[in-house]
Amino acid sequence: MTLWEGLAVLLAGIGAGTINTVVGSGTLITFPVLLAFGVPPVTANVSNTIGLVPGTLSGAIGYRRELTGQRGRLIRMGTASLLGGLLGAYLLVKLPSAAFDTIVPVLILLALVLVVIQPRVARAMAARKREGSTAELGPLLLGGVFLTGIYGGYFGAAQGVLLVALIGMLLQDSMQRINGAKNVLALIVNAVAAVFFLFTSEIDWTAVLLIAVGSTLGGQLGAKVGRRLPPPALRGVIVAVGLVAVTRMLLS
C-alpha cells in the first residue's frame, strides 16, 4: 500500500467512524476503498470489521450519557447481538468466497435502500412515540436484533440503520438513547466477529491499523459534532460510495 493509498484508507476510517456513530453504514465508505486498492473482497471485509471495532467502541463511549439506565435491556439485546454476530462471522468463513461475491452486492443495495428510507422510518418512529405506544423486549425485537447480528457479522453495512429502526419502532425511548444503544450493539457484533476472524481468516493488518486509528477519531467526532452534519448530504455520500462499490464488484 502506497503512502497516498494509506492516507485514503485513514480518511475513509475517519469518515466511517463518524458515520457509524451518527447513523450507521460506515462500511460503505471503507469497504469500497479497500477494494479499489486491490484487497480481495473477503479479506477486505474481515480487515474492515476488525479495524472498525475501536471506532464503534469510541462511539459507544461518546454516547455514555445516553446509556444511563439501559443496562438491563442492553444485556438482553447484547446477548442476541453476540450470538447473531458469531453466526454471521462463521457463515462468512465457511461459505465459499464466490458466495460472498454474489451476496454482497445485494446486501449493499439493501443497505443503500435503508439509508435512503431512514428519514421516513424516523418519522414513523416519531409518530409512534406521539401516540404513546410502549413495548417491552419481546421475541419480535430480540429476534430482529439476532438477525441483524447475523447480517453484521457477515457484512455489516447499515446494521446501525437496521438497529435504530427496530429499537425505535418497538421500544418507547428518545432517539439519542436509541442511538446510544445501537452503538453498543454494533460494537458487540463487530467485536465478536473480529475475535472469530483473528483465528480463522486472512487479514490485511496495514488496513486494520489505518481503519482502527481513523475510526477511533471518527467515533469521537461523530459523538461530538456529527449530529450537526446535514443528513441529506451525509446520505448522498453514503449512497454514492455504495453504488461505486456495487459497480466495481459486478464489473470484476
TrEMBL record:
The chain crosses the membrane at residues 7-36, 42-62, 74-93, 99-117, 138-171, 232-251. The keyword Chloroplast does not apply. It is found in: Cell membrane. Pfam families: TauE (PF01925). Keywords: Cell membrane, Membrane, Transmembrane, Transmembrane helix, Transport. The keyword Transmembrane applies. It is a multi-pass membrane protein. One of its GO terms (cellular component) is plasma membrane. Belongs to the 4-toluene sulfonate uptake permease (TSUP) (TC 2.A.102) family. This is Probable membrane transporter protein.
